[in-house]
């Protein structure tokens, strides 16, 4: 774990109380003990070094206290390695969205995890022509949504991402297009990954020397995207079709591949 994601701020005395599953993780996995320091991502996005000042195994409660680092890792015994949002965002001013046509839930879980690790801000699941009814029904289940949000939290903790990734409610293709129309502007760019080479353009040619503040990738589910879906997405150049030469990628691979390619081009990597 590179950071601990806290759902609450420290109290006025600088204390943060850890209980339940989080307590078990700290004790059984990290084996934290009094004096150890961890990086805590607070709800406001700040990464705060905190020290374990009290560990009560009987009450199953851990108390963390805000502290100042000495700058000596060996002395501080920092168990996690988070990254300040300000550090990561120096030179990176782009917000990334992923419009993911709903695949099987197991694959969606993997896509969500990888999107979080890649620093995606918003994940929008979209009902497509090839989406299975069982997947739609699964997202109506509060337990499944809770699991997906748990995956997001764990992925942020493991990767150290300062981006507060949000999973939006399931939408139709029309709703997805309307949503992006409301968000896009002159400093945005959106692409749809397509297995065919028809009307395909390169990300480089579309982005050019522009400074992109908002970017999106749309990716199909198993079976890809239908001709009708591509037509709706690309109408009025809302999404630009992109075809990557080479092997046809699985949907869970394509989403990460496309997002990584877009980030490299925008960041002039």
Short characterization:
With 269 residues, the chain is of the alpha/beta class. Helices cover 36% and strands 21% of the residues.
Structure description:
The protein is of the alpha/beta class and 269 residues long. The protein contains 10 helices and 11 strands. It has helices at 20-29, 73-76, 85-88, 105-117, 133-139, 142-159, 173-183, 203-207, 227-234, 251-266; strands at residues 4-5, 15-18, 37-41, 47-56, 61-66, 95-101, 122-126, 166-167, 188-193, 214-219, 240-242. The strands form 2 sheets. A 6-stranded parallel β-sheet has the order 8-7-6-10-9-11, with helices on both faces. A 5-stranded mixed β-sheet has the order 1-3-4-5-2. Helix 8 links the parallel strand 9 and strand 10 (214-219). Helix 4 packs parallel to helix 6 (142-159) and helix 4 (105-117) packs parallel to helix 10 (251-266). The longest helix has 18 residues, at 142-159. The radius of gyration is 21 Å and the shape is elongated. The two termini are 27 Å apart. The model is unreliable at 84-91 (pLDDT under 50).
Record keyword descriptors for this entry.
269 residues, alpha/beta, elongated
Helix proportion of residues, in percent? 25-40%
Query: Over the alpha carbons, how many angstroms does the gyration radius reach?
Result: 21 Å
Report strand %.
15-25%
Question: Outline, from the CA principal axes?
Answer: elongated
Q: Please count the beta strands (DSSP E, at least 2 residues each).
A: 11
**Which structural class best describes the helix and strand composition?**
alpha/beta
Count helical runs: 10
Provide the spatial order of strands within the biggest beta sheet.
8-7-6-10-9-11
Distance between the termini: 27 Å
Q: Give a quick account of the main beta sheet: strands, pairing sense, barrel closure.
A: 6 strands, parallel
- Low-confidence segments, given as residue ranges, are 84-91
> What is the average of the pLDDT values?
88
Order of helices and strands: EEHEEEHHEHEHHEHEHEHEH
């Amino acid at each position: 774990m590179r950071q601990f994601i806290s759902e609450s701020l420290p109290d006025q005395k600088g204390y943060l109380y850890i209980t339940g599953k989080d307590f078990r993780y700290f004790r059984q996995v990290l084996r934290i003990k009094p004096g150890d320091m961890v990086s805590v991502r607070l709800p406001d996005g700040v990464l705060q070094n905190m020290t374990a000042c009290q560990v009560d195994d009987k009450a199953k409660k851990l108390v963390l206290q805000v502290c100042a680092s000495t700058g000596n890792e060996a002395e501080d015994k920092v168990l996690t390695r988070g990254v300040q949002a300000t550090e990561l965002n120096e030179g990176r001013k782009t917000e990334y969205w992923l419009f993911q046509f709903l695949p099987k839930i197991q694959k969606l879980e993997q896509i969500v995890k990888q999107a979080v690790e890649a620093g995606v801000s918003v994940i929008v699941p979209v009902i497509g022509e090839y989406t299975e009814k069982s997947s739609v029904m699964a997202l109506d289940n509060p337990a499944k949504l809770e699991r997906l949000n748990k995956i997001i939290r764990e992925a942020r903790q493991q990767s150290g991402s300062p981006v507060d990734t949000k999973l939006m409610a399931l939408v139709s293709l029309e709703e997805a297009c309307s949503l992006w129309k409301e968000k896009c502007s002159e400093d945005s760019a959106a692409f749809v990954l397509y297995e065919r080479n028809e009307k395909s353009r390169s990300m480089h040619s579309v982005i050019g020397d522009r400074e992109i503040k908002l970017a999106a990738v749309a990716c199909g589910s198993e079976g890809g995207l239908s001709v009708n879906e591509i037509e709706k997405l690309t109408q009025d150049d809302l999404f630009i079709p992109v075809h990557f030469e080479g092997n046809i990628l699985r949907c869970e691979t394509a989403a990460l591949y496309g997002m990584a390619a877009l980030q490299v081009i925008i960041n002039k990597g």
